[in-house]
Amino acid sequence: MLIRIKKASEVNPSEITSKEAILGRRAFMTAAAAASGVALLPTFAGPAFAGVRLENVKKTSWGEAEKPATLEGITSHNNFYEFGTGKSDPKRNAHTLKPKPWTVEIAGHAEKTGTFGLDDLIKPHQLEERIYRMRCVEAWSMVIPWVGIPLGDVLKRFNPSSKAKYVAFETLVDHAQMPMQSSPSLPWPYLEGLRMDEAMHPLTLLAVGIHGEVMPNQNGAPVRLVVPWKYGFKGIKSIVKISFVEKQPPATWNIQAPREYGFYSNVNPDRSHPRWSQAQERVITGEGGLKALFAPRAETKMFNGYAEEVASLYAGMDLINNF
Ligand SMILES: Nc1nc2c(c(=O)[nH]1)N[C@H]1C(S)=C(S)[C@@H](COP(=O)(O)O)O[C@H]1N2
Ligand SMILES: [Mo]
C-alpha cells in the first residue's frame, strides 16, 4: 500500500492522530511494550511522520535574531558516517534507518535505569524550539532551529549518583539499517561523552526535530544530541544508549585521531586543528547553492558565541591543551 505523506503545511493535527493510529501505533506498542513493559505512544519517532509537523512546540527566545538555514540546506549537507563519508551521502542513503519503534537504554550510576521507549523519555508536550548556531570542526556552520528538550531535564529523572561524573552516549549498530557500518571508516558504534556539568547545562539538548518537523533520518532520527558550544561531532545521532559513568568515556573522533580531536572539542578560534585554522567558518544557509565553498565567511567565536553561558564551566582550565 502506498501512503502519500502530505507536506507539513497540508496536515492538520487531527489527521496526525489518525495517521498514527493507522500507520504505526499498534505495531509500535506491541514491539515497545514487549521490549520494555511500558505503554508508549509514538508521537514523533518514525518514518511515517517524516515531513510532519510536531504539535504544540513551545517557542523560545533562543536565537530569535538569527536566520535559520533552509530545511533543504540542513538535510542536504550532513556528516553521518553510518551512511557514507560524503556530505551528500546521508541524504541519499539514510532511508534505510527505521526510527520507529525506538528505545533508549539508560545505564550506569543512577537510582533508576532500564530501557525506555523514546516517547516515554521525551513527552511531546515538553518540546521547545531553539535556534542554535552549529559549528562543524571542518570549518563550516549552520543556524539550525532544533526541536527538543534540555538533556538535563531527562537525565535528572533517573537520579544519577555522586559517582556519575560523565555521561556516555552510543549510536545504534545495525548493518541492515546502517549499511556503511560494514565499512571500517570509523569504529562502531559511534561514541560520545560529556562531563556531567556539560550534560546538565541548560543549553544542551536532546533533539527530536528540525524546523518544527520530526527529525529527518540524515540528521540523526529519532533522537540526537545538540551541544552548540562544541564542534558538531559531539552531536551524536540516533542514540540508543546513555550511561552515567565515573571515568571520561571514549569518544569516536578522539579515539580515531587523538592529536586532532580532543575530548572537550569546545569551539575555539585560537586553537587550530593540526591541518587547518579554526579562526573562520563558511556559513551555509541553504540558499544560492549548498556547497560550503561558496558560502560567506564569518569569524569563529570562542565557544561558538555561547561564552556568556558556558565559559564558567571551564574556569581555570587551559583550553589550548584541553582541546
Ligand atoms: N552517529 C553519528 N553521529 C554524528 C556523526 C556521525 O558520523 N555519526 N557526525 C557528527 C558530525 S562530524 C557533525 S558535524 C554532526 C552533523 O550533524 P548534521 O548532519 O545534522 O548537521 O553530526 C555528528 N554526529
Ligand atoms: Mo563535524
How would you characterize this protein structure?
The N and C termini lie far apart (52 Å). The protein has helices at residues 13-36, 71-74, 89-93, 118-121, 151-155, 196-200, 252-256, 307-310; strands at 58-59, 103-108, 114-117, 128-135, 140-150, 166-171, 191-195, 205-210, 213-214, 224-226, 239-245, 280-283, 297-299. The longest helix has 24 residues, at 13-36. The strands form 2 sheets. Strands 1, 4, 5, 8, 9, 10, 12 and 13 form an 8-stranded mixed beta sheet that branches. Strands 3-2-11-6-7 form a 5-stranded mixed beta sheet. Mean pLDDT is 87; it is low at 1-42. The protein has 8 helices and 13 strands. The protein is an alpha+beta fold. Strand 4 and strand 5 (140-150) form a beta hairpin. It has one domain (19-314): Oxidoreductase, molybdopterin-binding domain (Sulfite Oxidase, Chain A, domain 2), CATH 3.90.420.10. Ligand MTE is lined by residues 78-82, 136, 171, 190, 219-220, 232-233, 235-238.
Q: What tags apply to this protein structure?
A:
single chain, 323 residues, alpha+beta, Sulfite Oxidase, Chain A, domain 2, eight-stranded mixed beta sheet, five-stranded mixed beta sheet, 8 helices, 13 strands, 17% helix, binds ligand MTE, binds molybdenum atom
- The structural domain count equals 1
Number-wise, the strands total: 13
What distance lies between the first and last C-alpha atoms, to the nearest angstrom? 52 Å
Q: What is the overall silhouette?
A: globular
What is the top-level CATH class?
Alpha Beta
- Element string (H = helix, E = strand): HEHHEEHEEHEEHEEEEHEEH
The CATH topology is given as Sulfite Oxidase, Chain A, domain 2
Give me the secondary-structure category. alpha+beta
Number of helices: 8
- The name of the CATH superfamily reads Oxidoreductase, molybdopterin-binding domain
Using only C-alpha atoms, the radius of gyration works out to: 19 Å
Note the beta-strand portion: 15-25%
User: Biggest sheet, open or closed, and with what strands and sense?
Assistant: 8 strands, mixed
**Can you tell me the CATH architecture?**
Alpha-Beta Complex
Instruction: Bin the helical content.
Output: 10-25%
Overall pLDDT level? 87
Unreliable sequence segments: 1-42
Bound heterogens, unique: ligand MTE, molybdenum atom
